[in-house]
TrEMBL record:
This is 2-C-methyl-D-erythritol 4-phosphate cytidylyltransferase. It comes from Marinobacter adhaerens. Its EC number is 2.7.7.60. Catalyzes the formation of 4-diphosphocytidyl-2-C-methyl-D-erythritol from CTP and 2-C-methyl-D-erythritol 4-phosphate (MEP). It is an enzyme of class 2 (transferase). It catalyses: 2-C-methyl-D-erythritol 4-phosphate + CTP + H(+) = 4-CDP-2-C-methyl-D-erythritol + diphosphate. Belongs to the IspD/TarI cytidylyltransferase family. IspD subfamily. NCBIfam families: ispD. Keywords: Isoprene biosynthesis, Nucleotidyltransferase, Transferase. HAMAP family: IspD. The record marks R157, K213 as: Positions MEP for the nucleophilic attack. Pathway: Isoprenoid biosynthesis; isopentenyl diphosphate biosynthesis via DXP pathway; isopentenyl diphosphate from 1-deoxy-D-xylulose 5-phosphate: step 2/6.
Length: 230
């Protein structure tokens, strides 16, 4: 099977509170989106890449990636899952049912390329797919919902993981799962959750915890530091 890449970049970065969507903020000289895309495209033999963009996006032509003939764009949706589904539909004619699709957030530029290779190697023969994830390190508290929430219990951390990206699934399983989950209005916060709703069991592959999603302003400096360490 061949490998395909989707990098959803249609968000508006509300929590970042910047002038432009966070994927178009710069770390050093480069757009976050360019850092993310080049790390991925330079590290694995992708047959192609689809980048869903916001309908009002006008920054894409300024990226380095816009000059890369392997990378195409499509119009994203109002939710992340809709953006991914629109990319999957846009690539339908090129892709076979059992090809692999890797989905990676534009806002995660700090992916260690060894984690990417490891994910691909571990899952390549698997019938369904899976995701990079990191074991939960903090002590977890369950609390009541209230002005001053009181702790009900400390949740056992055994077997709990933080979901990261890339998430890697067989094309047909991913399309069918996302379509079914969105039609039923299920909470789809990542590809894996849609695939889980379909009754399939994704595999977890341990990745580095510093593969952070840039979400709030403080994450920008943190990501710059993490990238400087590679
Ligand atoms: N994304 C997308 N389409 C959407 C929403 C999000 O392609 N309708 C992408 C974002 O561009 C980002 C990734 O999904 O690369 C993860 O989403 P998130 O971190 O939530 O980004 P935003 O939605 O842009 O940020 P916020 O939720 O703070 O508005
Ligand atoms: Mg969002």
């Amino acid at each position: 099977p061949r490998l395909w890449l989707i990098v959803p970049a249609a968000g508006i970065g509300q929590r970042m509170q910047a002038e432009q969507p966070k994927q178009y903020l710069r770390i050093g000289e480069r757009f976050i989106l360019d850092i993310t895309l080049s790390r991925l495209m330079d590290s694995a033999p992708f047959s192609g890449c689809m980048v869903p963009l916001h309908p009002a996006d006008h920054w894409w032509p300024d990226t380095e990636a816009s000059g890369d003939s392997r990378i195409q764009t499509c119009t994203g949706g109002s939710e992340r899952a809709g953006s991914v589904l629109s990319a999957l539909h846009a690539m339908a004619e090129q892709v076979k049912d059992d090809d692999w699709v890797l989905v990676h957030d534009a806002a995660r530029p700090c992916l260690d390329t060894r984690d990417l290779s490891n994910l691909i190697d571990r899952l390549y023969s698997h019938p369904v797919g899976g995701l990079l994830a990191s074991p939960v390190a903090d002590t977890l508290k369950k609390a009541v919902t209230a002005e001053l929430p009181e702790v009900i219990e400390t949740v056992d951390r055994t077997g709990l993981w933080r979901a990261l990206t890339p998430q890697m699934f067989r094309y047909r399983i991913l399309v069918d799962s996302l379509e079914a989950a969105l039609a039923r209005d299920l909470p789809v916060t990542d590809e894996s959750s849609a695939v889980e709703f379909s009754g399939n069991m994704p595999v977890v592959v341990e990745g580095r915890p510093d593969n952070i999603k840039i979400t709030v302003p403080a994450d920008l400096a943190l990501a710059g530091f993490i990238l400087s360490q590679f």
